[in-house]
Amino acid sequence: MNFRIAIVGAGPAGYFAAQALQNLQSDEHKFAIDMIEKLPTPWGLVRSGVAPDHPKIKTVSKVFEKIATTEGFQLFCNVELGKDVSVEELSSKYDAVVIATGTDKGRKLGIPGEDLRGSLSAAEFVPWYNAHPDYVNVDVPLDTDTAVVIGAGNVAMDVARMLALEPKELDCTDTASHALERLHKSSIRTVHVFARRGPEHVAFTSPELRELPKLEHTDVEIGECDIEDALKRVTSAGEIPKDVKSNLDAMMAIAKTPKKGNERKMNFHFLASPIEIKGKDRVEVVIFAINVIKDGKVVQTSDTYSVKAGLVVSAIGYQAEPIAGIPFKSGIVEHKDGRVGETNMYVVGWAKRGPSGVIGTNKSDAASVMELLITNLESPKDNFDFLTYLRERGVVHVSQGSWEKINAAEVSAGESSGKPRMKFTDRKEMLGFAG
Ligand code: NAP
Question: Ligand 1 test: best mutation among 46, 149, 196, 290, most atoms within 8 Å of CB?
Fold first, then answer.
């Protein structure tokens, strides 16, 4: 039987859901997959999240293109759920709908001064340097010698590297041209990264930490005594989990690496919670409360210290923007094992689990949800042609063929300057390839 499945969101979770359906096809179940994406381009976080100096991670896009060029798959970019088509319409026309829209809103610190100029979320800064069309005009003041990054996860690490790297190192990457130009003129020379807990609790992963001593033009500093204290704490608590040991080893290696005397610095601080951002018209000072670890628990003290900085980027996680017609709870879609209530709607990726895990995590996650989806299929609904639906409503979409033209044009534009691509940021320019 032939079933029509709509997948909303062309990021890693959406593609891995499509791949799982393609792999699960049988004589009993054949799938026509329509992937719907609000941006004019696919690939989600692989395009607008992964740091430009991590090109290897982006090679997963080859897998996405293989999925997209498999029979039965159609791409509909520049089509927005809730604007061009409603959840109810998709749910009634398709045999199943898979929500793979991610979590693109940055969590707030909830402290005074957070809305001052110069205080932004990684959810704005990252898409700014990655050429997301909706974030080109984010106000990123770089006319300051010091930046503060709040959070101890891999996003905080990406943000800190992008601010602390010698911009020449980004010339051969696909960093947005507007961001690269600004980074070249940046006055930032010191980037302080703040973790509210100890080194043993950080959410960085060790491959990312191990990269840091290799930075040629940036000295990375971690206090050796911070790592020694953390080692004492974890050793006294029993066997050290493998990932914690690996992280502590990587941080100790950073601490022991002789500094090169570079002007650019990245400094890590632990056990400090931001409690206030101060400034007249923009960020000037960040106040931190000192935390201590008592009986294995992190406790905030009344002692504080301040750090002068003109830019603060918080990288403390993400939450989903609610979509009309879908139940949301605590920043994610409400579901049971990936199914939304008793409906024909399913959820995968960060919109299902929250913002955790690497790109590959979405593969097994999507596969188990697609298995559940298949078990709930009964008989196929009447044929429905989404292309006609969009044409009747005057919605211009970017098909797989049009996207391939955009892709080729970006790659070719980057070639002369040794970049993997020069990303378009203008929707109109991209839509010029549609049709
Ligand atoms: P994350 O890994 O969950 O880290 C969030 C960090 O923010 C944690 O250190 C957390 O500290 C801290 N935090 C939360 N609320 C805070 C507050 N109010 N004040 C101070 N700190 C606060 O999230 P992420 O960095 O956004 O990354 C999301 C996922 O993407 C992760 O799985 C990450 O590994 C993945 N990712 C991977 C790569 C890569 O592979 N290269 C790159 C980027 C992202 P607590 O632990 O104390 O809560």
Answer: 196
User: Which pLDDT value is given to residue 241?
Assistant: 94
% of the chain at pLDDT higher than 70: 100
pLDDT score of 435 more than 80: no
As a whole number of angstroms, the distance between CA 332 and CA 322 comes to: 8
3-state secondary structure of 48: helix
Minimal-distance CA residue to ligand 1 atom 39: 154
Alpha helix positions (H), 40-118: 45-48, 61-68, 87-93
pLDDT for 160-194, tens place per residue?
A: 999 999 999 999 999 999 999 999 999 999 999 99
How close is the Cα of 193 to the center of ligand 1, in Å?
12
The structure's pTM equals: 0.97
Give the mean pLDDT of 397-426: 96
CB hemisphere CA count around 260 (13 angstroms):
15
Nearest CA to ligand 1 atom 1: 153
Beta-ladder partners of 105? 319
Whole-angstrom Cα distance, residue 97 to residue 403? Answer: 23
Is the model's pLDDT at 329 over the cut of 90?
yes
First to last CA, the chain: 31
Ligand 1 center from residue 5 Cα (angstroms): 33
Residue 104, ligand 1, Cβ within 6 A: no
Closest residue to atom 42 of ligand 1, CA basis:
154
Is the beta carbon of 422 within 6 A of some atom in ligand 1? no
* Secondary-structure percent of the chain, ordered helix, strand, coil, rounded to 5: 35, 25, 40
